[in-house]
Amino acid sequence: MTTLVGEASQSDAIAPAFDRITKAGSQVLIVQPNGLFINQRKAILRQALAAGLPTIFDDRGDVEAGGFMSYGVNQREGSLRVAAFVDKILKGAKPGDLPIEFSTKIEMAINLKTAKALGFEIPATLLARADEVIE
Questions:
Q1: CA dihedral in degrees (32, 37, 39, 44; nearest 10)?
Q2: What average pLDDT is seen over the chain?
Q3: Helix (H, G, I), strand (E, B) or coil at 76
Q4: Is 7 helix (H, G, I), strand (E, B) or coil?
Q5: Structurally, how many domains does the chain consist of?
């Protein structure tokens, strides 16, 4: 297996990056979390579907938007933990005295509609392990 990296630092660089990775024979697109890709998610999903590339993200919100699969920390849980820390700080706690926390819940989501559009049949064993299956 070969890993190809398609880089894009501006929205107009996404399409050329897609061209390079599809011409090189990529079979899956792993989209790293960053502001540009979040803002361009619809365009990325549209191009990936047109190219027949399944997409893997780190957040299930991307799967809800049409991505194929996600595997990563529970972003909602993390947001709630941030709110709890802000509450403690606003009540007088010193930020340096608060413990460092890491999310311990990793979740997987699968979009069956996208899988069908790509011609994939997801094994029942994988569906059973998913935290969320979007139909």
A1: -120
A2: 88
A3: helix
A4: coil
A5: 1
| pTM of this prediction exceeds 0.85 | no
- Count of beta carbons in the 10 Å neighbourhood of residue 84: 12
Dig out the tokens for 120 from the structure. Answer: 């994939």
Signed CA dihedral, 54, 59, 64, 65: sign only = negative
Question: At residue 55, what are phi and psi to the nearest 5 degrees?
Answer: -110, 140
Give the separation between CA 49 and CA 32, rounded to whole angstroms. Answer: 17
pLDDT surpassing 70 at residue 2? no
CATH number of 38's domain: 3.40.50.2300
Q: Give me the percent of the chain exceeding a pLDDT of 70.
A: 97
- According to the model, what pLDDT value does residue 1 have? 57
Q: How far apart are CA 82 and CA 76, in angstroms?
A: 10
Residue 123 inside a domain? The answer is yes
Closest CA to 30 of 64, 60, 53: 53
3-state helix, strand, coil split of the chain in percent (to 5) is 50, 15, 35
What is the Cα–Cα distance from 85 to 93, expressed in whole angstroms?
Answer: 9
Q: Flag whether pLDDT at 14 surpasses 60.
A: yes
